[in-house]
Predict the 3D structure of the following.
Amino acid sequence: MSLISTLYLNITFYSAFLLFSAAAIPLMSAVVILISLFVPKRTTLRNFRAAIVIYGKVITRLGYPLVRLRTEDLSGVDLRKGPYIFIMNHRSSSDPFLVSTLPLGTEMVQVVNTWPFRLPVLGFFARLADYIDINSISFEEFMEQGSRLLGQGISIVFFPEGTRSGGKEMGQFRSAAFKLFLETRATIIPAAISGNEDIPHKGSLRLNPGTVKVRYLPPVRWEDHEGSNAFKVKTAVRDMIGSQLTEMDGQG
Amino acid sequence: MTEQEIIEKVNNVFMTAFEIDEAQIRPEAHIFEDLGLDSLDIVDLVVELQKAFGVKIRDEEQVREIRTLSDIYGFIKGVKAGKGGS
């Protein structure tokens, strides 16, 4: 039964993924390009980023009912009214898609390694949307780019482990996001993602049935860390996410 | 300054400025893999070490080679002796 479910899930998901992508990407691009003729560039970019979130929202639901997605917002703030620095743990290649669990109207870009930029089509759109390839720029360029985006009211999503953990353990956090936090004083929203460590497992494309949970946590504000350093902030945020993951993983 | 004083002072930097548990502070502890620092944290670490020891650390090449707490003890010893700092 389990093997049949997995087979069914993978056939239906990847078929739907390809069909939807083939239809939606050109269509959404055409709509955004058409609208761009009549609106400022800034609005076009906002529309374009919204289109990416809508695309993600559909993709993350294609596995239903064998892959269920539960989102909990414990932040107590309106996540659309950033800019925020979202800090998420990273278990699987599905994580960048799970960012679409943010409410529609949250304008954001993701900080990623070089490999997503190499993906056909999706990499091209990531570049257009101003996603940050942290491996190809200097720290100074990153700070400049990050500050500019936050200054424009655009939230930034980080996976500070830098690479997928592939399991339930969490890797060490890198400090760049937290340097940006101390410099810009933008509020951090930590988020814990659990249940997707096998959807798909690191190094594989095979999806396994399960329930993915995304939980947005209360804000971490600069005022509470004034005079601190990036290491202390990242340790505090990592501990926050870690304790949530322990609870979420235990729920089954 | 004795070697033991240097060790205590470096350990104190890690416990106060980075809030690292005393139990994790061992000479062989890898500052990246075991203690969770990264290259950006090294900038803060250098600032804290300069404050703690009242020295200027200039030898970036030598700083880049630091991997363990033991390396830091040796590095500071060298700086105090006039190598890699002032």
